[in-house]
Amino acid sequence: MIAALALIGILSALALLHFGWATGRGPSLVGVVPSQGGRPLFDPGPVACVAMGLALSVAVLLCVMRAGWLLPGLPAWLSQTGVGGVALAFGLRAIGDFRYVGFSKRVRDGEFARRDTWLYSPLCVVVSSLAVALAWP
Fold first, then answer.
1. Bridge partners, residue 35, by sequence
2. Rounded Cα gap, residues 127 and 7, in angstroms
3. Which positions ≥6 away from 39 have C-beta within 8 Å?
4. What is the spatial distance between Cα 13 and Cα 26, in angstroms, rounded to a whole number?
5. What's the alpha-carbon Rg for the chain, to the nearest Å?
6. Using N-to-C axis directions, what is the helix angle for 76-95 and 121-135, rounded to 10°?
7. What is the pLDDT along the chain (137 residues), one digit of tens a residue?
8. Is the Cα dihedral 90, 91, 97, 103 positive or negative?
9. Would you state the pLDDT for residue 72?
10. What is the pLDDT, as a whole number, of residue 28?
11. What's the half-sphere exposure (Cβ side, CA atoms, 13 Å) at 69?
12. For residue 97, what is the DSSP state?
């Protein structure tokens, strides 16, 4: 129950943050996107932010289903597989791409790299761990 509540809270906050960025009302994107030489590697536009917000919202829905608070008649394997996918996705994000993102990154200078090391990647480990706990109680 605690894992479900924590996971749903974190994922909901992340979804709202991405929807805020899509509308231009979220906090600055400085330090949120990987950069090299002070230049962002990509510029996430509104469509990408909405897509990520929707993906996170689906993850919230899967967690709510797994907790048994929505559509309790569905087969358990369906929500278990979905939440397992959430655990896998965030676990892989924490590991990273071996260049710019995650604990495996080689580019370690810049605001994003510092935030990724101390906030983003550890948060991904927490989310992945909570999802594992929810998927396989």
1. 40
2. 6
3. none
4. 12
5. 16
6. 160
7. 899 999 999 999 999 999 999 999 888 888 999 998 888 999 899 999 999 999 999 999 999 999 999 988 889 999 999 999 999 999 999 999 999 999 999 999 999 999 999 999 999 999 999 999 999 97
8. positive
9. 81
10. 83
11. 11
12. -
Q: Are 100 and 36 in contact (CB under 8 A)?
A: yes
106, two tokens: 């080689």
Residue 29: predicted pLDDT: 81
pTM score, whole prediction = 0.94
Helix crossing, 121-135 with 46-66: angle to 10°? 30
Query: Parallel, antiparallel, or unpaired: how do β-strands 35-36 and 39-40 relate?
Result: antiparallel
Pairwise CA distance, residues 2 & 4, whole Å:
5
Closest CA to 59 of 126, 9, 111: 9
Please enumerate in sequence order all residues whose Cβ is within 8 A of that of 19, keeping only pairs 6 or more positions apart, or say none: 26, 49, 50, 53
* CA–CA distance, 75 with 89 (Å, rounded to integer): 22
Output the DSSP codes for 92-119.
Answer: HHHH--SSSSSTT-S---SHHHHHIIII
Question: How far is it, in rounded angstroms, from Cα 27 to Cα 1?
Answer: 31
